[in-house]
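worker-03 picked up job from queue 'complexes'. Input manifest follows; two sequence lines, order preserved.
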Amino acid sequence: MFALILKELRSLAWVIALALLADGWMLSELTGQTHWVRGDMELQPGFALVQTEWLIWFGFLLASIASVLGFALSLDDGLRGTWAFALFRPVSRRAYIGAKLLVGGVMTLVLALLPVVAYSIWGAWPGNLGAPFHWAQLQPAIEACGWSVVVFFGTFLSGIRPAKWWWSRLWPLVTTVTLGMWL
Amino acid sequence: MPDAIVTDGLTKWYGSKCVVKQLRLRVPEGCVYGFLGRNGAGKSTTIKMLTGMVHPDDGTASLLGQDVATLPPEMRQRIAYLAEGHPLYSWMTIDGLMRFNRPFYPAWNQTLFDQIIEHFQLDRRQKIKHLSKGQVAQVSLALGIAPEPELLILDDPTLGLDTVVRRDFLESLIQIIQKKGRTIFLSSHVLGDVERVADRIGVMVDGVLRVDCPTDEFKQSIRRVVLSFDRLPPAFSGCDGLVASHVEERRLELVIVGFGDAHQTLFAAMTPAPKSIEVVELNLEDALIEYTRGSRRAIPVFARD
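worker-03 finished. Artifact:
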């Protein structure tokens, strides 16, 4: 199982690198170092991740990372034609798919939580925010992180599920994204 | 001797086309079995069903006595499968692939793996995507052999390789076969390759196993018979085992399965009588081409045992 986890992690190196860059950029936006997202948006004082505009941007970032991870893990073997090699290793199919889900789920959560944790530490530091910081303010962002894991599973299912039509194949992804936005 | 591969009524449909029909196959342990047929004959689908990559619509298959449908991981430690085109993780190095594979196989023979890699003069730090097709096939062979499998299933392993690399690959395979009495199930479209290594062959024609016998028996059972006449040959109505016939000026050429005395008698009694009867032995390639392209190609050839 360890060999499978290591293999999936290594195959995701490029996605993780891109996601870390996106996380860094989001953090720099939240802390006001860059202003690409903010633009002319009126910045309210206080913790940004309780404000709807920022949560939409954050949710978009998380959904993007989760989707790329989901598709990368589910489509990789099919696109490279390595299913035959992978599935004939002496390991059960359940373990092989389980390793992909475990790595993808954990990586989605870690990559989602990284900017939240970093921004919270920055926000808790005296003098950085124009309003008091309470840990309870993290609730919407944490919920978004949890939702991103559901999006990952939806995307993975979309990638791995055989279906004749793309639309029917994409319904797990569409459902999870819609559900998250509605909630 | 027990059978390493057994199939019973194995059938697969793709849409309305039956690509493998009621396949009944037995490959004894220690046998090198050449699985032949033209493109689309059903070879790869059969192998995919044997390895559990494709589910059959009907019938059963077992490897080393275990039903393929419930083949546990421990059994796959004893079986190596080299899929067509040698699909390996292109982003891994040779060493990386070895490190990925090794933990799955308790019987992994590192010395053997190192010997094969050194024999082929491969750079272990090279990524698979930077290797030639031949080198990828060599890595695939090393990965397949290092776990010391009892059964090797090779799906057209020399496809796309040039003559020199193909020869090198097969010579390595022969050495490996000679070392241990393991079973090898090899599909190929390069008949010369199969002739060199296989002691038994099976030929698929349109999804049906039409030949299953020792290689020499197949070669001996098919003959090209050339009947020469003083004038145009008479119309030939056919005979037992006739696979193909054609007239060329004053010669009537026949390809016959199971040529024997009865055929000699029949030809001698023709009117007009042939001036000469020449019986030509065929190599495997010629025999198979004649057998599979003839309009009456449904004549089966099975082992006498």
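worker-03 released lock.
DSSP finds ten helices and 15 strands in chain B.
Chain B has a mean pLDDT of 86.
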